[in-house]
TrEMBL record:
InterPro entries: GDP_Man_deHydtase, NAD(P)-bd_dom, NAD(P)-bd_dom_sf. This is GDP-mannose 4,6-dehydratase. Its EC number is 4.2.1.47. Its cofactor is NADP(+). Belongs to the NAD(P)-dependent epimerase/dehydratase family. GDP-mannose 4,6-dehydratase subfamily. Signal peptide: none annotated. PANTHER family: GDP-MANNOSE 4,6 DEHYDRATASE (PTHR43715:SF1), GDP-MANNOSE 4,6-DEHYDRATASE (PTHR43715). Keywords: Lyase. It comes from Nocardioides mangrovi. It is an enzyme of class 4 (lyase).
Length: 322
């Protein structure tokens, strides 16, 4: 793996999200000049050391002129409507942000490369949701792309476009990210919803936890590890797609049990209520990734296991409720 060169410049979309914030911090600490896109309609995110540029990711013109102006060495496309559940309410916006915007960015990155004669490395934050209900588990880079929700379909389009541009000699990679969590995860995701509510129950501020499908199994990793995989993929000698996952699956029920126990509550079952409103029209029963390629070619491996992910998130929420 080649390391970062002095004077490198990176461009990040999605800086206000969980992964964008970790990535921005990581690159700034490495001495990379970091630029990021901040949406016109949102308050400026706090991103120390990052130069923020106002713009709309879905505007091809905005994206192209900004990229030509900045001429970055590395582009990380992390911006997305990130909720699978919400993608059913806004399928068209999901298509534009999660799908079409990636195409515009790829085209702009190629333009920078061709006009300025310097190589651009492009990383797309792809998703396990592109596999839909896969026939086998774990999945790897050869698993058929067959999404089953608007989020997955839009991510699948972006994923395929990365391959299209790789054939045009852009160092473009898709990091097929499995669920990755941290205290920065918003509460619309089940992990953070669980840890925030468990902390509130422990502090006497909530009485119960309402959830949907407790049997769904996910491969939950630690977000900063996944950011590390994306940086390694950007700087690898050869552009490939990589599954980024721990390879270990747990059910939502297991996450709930681990979170309550970590907060010192053993008799948790009476505190959990099943609410059909949180059950999705289609929901993959098991998404577990095989990251052998990332391990072998990028030297990447997860550093935080399931119990520790749960423990760190519960601890952060317990200290937040005081
Ligand atoms: P996703 O895998 O990217 O959709 O991440 P989520 O954290 O939103 O959902 C993970 C799994 O938890 C899915 O199978 C959901 O159906 C399941 N789940 C069960 N109850 C809930 C809930 O109350 N909220 C959310 N977000 N997911 C839930």
């Amino acid at each position: 793996m080649s390391s970062v060169t002095t004077g490198a410049r990176a461009f990040i979309t999605g800086i206000s999200g969980q992964d964008g914030s970790y990535l921005g911090e990581r690159l700034v600490a490495e001495g990379v000049e970091v630029h990021a896109l901040a949406h016109d309609l949102e308050p400026l995110p706090s991103a120390p050391g990052v130069e923020l540029h106002r713009g709309d990711l879905t505007s091809v013109e905005d994206v192209r002129s900004l990229l030509l102006d900045l001429a970055p060495d590395e582009v990380y496309n992390l911006a997305a409507l990130s909720s699978v559940a919400r993608s059913w309410d806004e399928p068209d916006l999901t298509a534009r942000v999660n799908g079409l915007a990636a195409a515009a960015l790829l085209e702009s990155a190629l333009l920078v490369q061709e006009k300025q004669g310097k190589p651009v490395r492009f990383v797309q934050a792809s998703s396990a949701e592109i596999f839909g209900q896969p026939e086998r588990s774990p999945q790897d880079e050869t698993t058929p792309v067959r999404p089953l929700n608007p989020y997955g379909a839009a991510k699948a389009y972006a994923h395929l476009m990365v391959d299209v541009y790789r054939h045009r000699d852009l160092h473009a990679v898709s990091a097929i990210l499995y669920n990755h969590e941290s205290p920065r995860r918003p509460e619309q995701f089940v992990t953070r919803k669980i840890t925030a509510t468990v902390a509130a129950i422990a502090a006497g501020r909530a009485t119960h936890l309402s959830l949907g499908n407790l049997d769904a199994r996910r491969d939950w990793g630690w977000a900063p590890d996944y950011v590390d995989a994306m940086v390694r993929a950007a700087r690898a000698d050869v552009a490939r797609d990589y599954v980024v996952a721990t390879g270990v699956g747990h059910s939502v029920r297991e996450f709930v049990a681990a979170a309550f126990r970590h907060a010192g509550i053993d008799d948790w079952e009476p505190l959990v209520v099943i609410d059909p409103a949180f059950v999705r029209p289609t929901d993959p029963t098991e998404l577990i990734g095989d990251a052998t390629r990332a391990r072998e070619l990028l030297g990447w491996s997860p550093t935080v296991d399931f119990a520790d992910v749960v423990g760190r998130m519960v601890d952060a929420d317990l200290s937040a409720v005081g």
